[in-house]
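Per-residue structure
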Amino acid sequence: MAGLLAGCATSPVGLPPVSVAASGETVPVGTANEDAADDPAIWRNAANPAASLIVATDKKAGLYVYNLAGEIMSFTDAGQVNNVDLVELEDGTVFVAASDRNDPLNSHIVFFTLDTAAGELVPAGRVPSGPGEGYGLCLSTHGGLSVLAVIKDGTLREYEIAESLPGETPMVELTREFSVPTQPEGCVYDDRDGTLYVGEEVAGIWRFADGATEGALVAPIDNQYLVADVEGLSIVTQGEDGGYLVASSQGDNAYAVYRLPDMTPLGRFAIGEGAFGATQETDGIDLVTGNFGPDYPDGLFVAQDGQNAPEAQNFKLVSWGAVLEVLGLE
C-alpha cells in the first residue's frame, strides 16, 4: 500500500538507482483521487507477442484487462480486489486469481479464466481463504496448481487447487498455514522447486522452501537496496537455479534486483521522467521475459504508479532489456 514516504524530507533514501524510461502506460484506473491501482499480472501471447495482455487491479472497484498499447480491453466489477496473478495451464487455459477483500474480516480468493481473444475475464468462482483481511496473492504450478493467500495480519495460507469442470468453482484444500511477524503483501513462487518469496513490508523479503513453515529473512530492509515498504515481487528464472528477483522499494521510488539463488543485490533502477512519466510509490509489479514485440523484445516489466497526477493512478510499461542494459546485466 502506498505509504507516501517519498514526500517526507526525513524518509530514508537508498543507494542511487540508475534510470530507465517507460515505453508505454495504461489508461488510468477509474477510481480517481485515491490509492486505487495496485497490482498487475502479464500474459504473454507466444504465438503473437504484440497481442499479449495485462490484467490489473483497481482495488476499490475491480479488474482491468489492458493490451500492450495500454488500452482497456475490458473491466470486471469485482469490488475490492487487491492483488492478482495468472498462470497458463498445460491445456492453454489462462487461470487468474485475485485476493478479495470485500469482507474485511474474512478473506476470499476470486477466480477467473482469461478469454485471450476477447481480452475479457470469465468468472470461475469465489472461495473463502480464512479469517482476516485478504491482501497479497500469488499462484504456483510447481507440483500442481496452488495459490497463496496473504493476510494483512501476517498469516500465509497455501491452498491446492483441484481441477474443476467448466462453469464450476474450483475446489481448494489448505496445504500449509504459516506467517511472518508483521504485515506482508507481495509474494512470488519459483516454480522450478516451489521456493516462495514473501515481502514483509517493514522488514524485508522472506524465503520459504517448498512445503516449509519456517523461513529466512534473505533481503532485509537496509535503506540501501530496500527502503520500506517492500511491496511487489517478481522473478526471472535462468537455468536450474539462477535468475533474478525484483522488488519494489516503495519508500524511495526504486526497484531492487537480486541474483538467484544467493540473493546477492545487483543494483537498483528507477522509472524516470520520459514520454510517459516517472513512477512513485509503486505497489505491485510483474515481469515476464521473452519477446513482446518491437518495444519489448527481451521482456516486459510493469509497475503500478502511485502518483500519476493529474490523472488517476495507472501502470507503466518498461522494456526489460533496457533495465538489463542500464544495470549492466545479461
About this structure: The two ends are 31 Å apart (CA to CA). The longest strand covers residues 120-131. The CA atoms of residues 6 and 252 lie 6 Å apart. The chain is about 0% helix and 50% strand.
